[in-house]
Amino acid sequence: MEFETRAVHIGQAADPGTGATIPPIHLTTTFTQPTPGEPLAGFDYSRSGNPTRSGLEACLASLEGGEACAAFSSGLAACSAVLQSLRPGDGVVASHDLYGGTFRLLDKVFVPWGLEVAFAQGAGVEAYRSAIRSLRHPRLLWIETPTNPLLDVLDIAVLSGLAREHGMLSAVDNTFATPYLQRPLELGADLAVHSTTKYASGHSDVVSGAVIARRSELLVGIRFLQNAMGAVPGPLDCYLVQRGLKTLAVRMDRHCANAQALAESLIGTEGIRRIIYPGLDSHPGHAVAARQMRAFGGMVSLELEGGLASARRLCSRVRVFACAESLGGVESLCSHPATMTHASIPAEIRKARGIGDGIVRLSVGIENAADLIADVRQALGGDSRQEGSHLSATLELAADGADSRL
Known about the structure:
This protein has helices at residues 3-9, 51-64, 75-84, 100-113, 125-133, 156-165, 178-181, 220-229, 235-246, 248-265, 286-292, 307-317, 347-352, 369-380, 384-399; strands spanning 68-72, 91-94, 116-119, 138-144, 169-173, 191-194, 209-213, 272-276, 299-304, 322-323, 333-335, 359-363. The chain has 15 helices and 12 strands. It has a 7-stranded mixed β-sheet, with helices on both faces. The chain has a 5-stranded mixed β-sheet with strand order 8-9-12-11-10, with helices on one face. The chain is an alpha/beta fold. The longest helix has 18 residues, at 248-265.
């Protein structure tokens, strides 16, 4: 079966007892056992396993092309389990540009715990090779691609090969791309990690995460931690993510088309120093992205002239976009990494990595592309009071069923 078909059907068979087309949500903490120590269908306690979670894990494993999946209560819980499966003294090489929460987890939690962490000083393979050489016992290569928030594109096949060359595991945070656009395990990575809070669920109403392994044995230690530490999603969370997966393909097609249209429409716009989107020929990673991704994603970052003041002005003037944390929902969001998603990274490190105060990150939703373009343009210039009130009035008319367009 092709991706779209598997997203609708894997792990979602009709209920055998009732014939319900949509499987029931198993809202139970415990399972009645006919004989002590011999639970029906292998389920005894929902921290250890739940039929709704098992269905989600089967679907995610299939979509990523892996053999096994472990679902978690958040993306960072999934990251933590991967890192906790290492041992004090092991070395981790991480992307130079990565989610602020991942940086904080590495720097403030796992370095004190005993891991040795080196950040690659660039996106090229030599930067990673140098970082590996700086470690005493390199064990894990942690990759984000496209990166957050600068959207650098890393060559998964090349970096996974580099990891194998040094006896390391490779893990790819595939949150931005999703398995619809990019499948790291098929490119040689050992693990794919997700904040399924984002595109996988797609509706900004659940927090969850997942780790998918290319081979089942790679997940044994992570599954042990999933149960032993208990950072598992509840059955309703699992249901919401699995429901989101059913429309992932059609949503991602629209996210990508809208992001491409927005990025192209802003070329040459006054006040924008740089438009960062892998779908533009000007992006340094465009060729790699075209090779390893189905399309270029729904994230666009802008570097604005005027720094912090300009970034704040844009984020406060938008009317269709919402200024909010997170990404990947059907609604468009904008954020200011330096004061929001990446504020946990010290300012001097942020700036050294290129995350200046003028960077704005756009999560481009599935609304009409023309409306999104108009919203960003009015937020970049003009009288925000007049244009903002016009947009608000138009949205109110649309909500009342009027045939109007932004």
